[in-house]
Write a structure and sequence with these properties.
Blueprint lengths: L1 H31 L5 H28 L7 H7 L4 H28 L1
Helix pairs in contact: 1-2, 2-3, 3-4
Length: 112
């Protein structure tokens, strides 16, 4: 029973991904006055789904190797290590979020 519900969730996620990719492809096709076949959208969806699965496995492996049960930003940064531009964008975003969180914490402590 658990497998059936897990497969159902996976199929629903894949359908949502197909819809989102289809919308992006349609929008871009209209912008460029081109056409994309449903087969192209299906193949692109399969490609993206496979990449998502691989990323998820890698992130879980990094987390487990570090002795954690939760994936952290450190795992994401480690995953992006081979793409320096992507790693830089992610690092900047993480730093901004941490700074905002620290600022909020300081502000809430002053209000006490």
């Amino acid at each position: 029973m658990a497998d059936a519900s897990g497969e159902d969730v996976q199929e629903r996620l894949k359908s949502a991904l197909w819809f989102a990719i289809g919308k992006m492809v349609d929008d871009e096709s209209l912008r460029r006055n081109m056409n994309a076949t449903p087969q192209f959208i299906g193949a692109l969806t399969e490609l993206v789904w496979t990449q998502i699965e691989n990323v998820a496995i890698d992130l879980e492996t990094f987390s487990q190797h570090a002795g954690r049960t939760t994936v952290t930003t450190d795992d994401v940064l480690l995953l992006a290590r081979r793409n320096s531009d992507l790693q830089s964008v992610i690092k900047d975003c993480v730093d901004r979020l941490k700074a905002a969180k620290a600022k909020e914490k300081t502000r809430s402590e002053k209000q006490k």
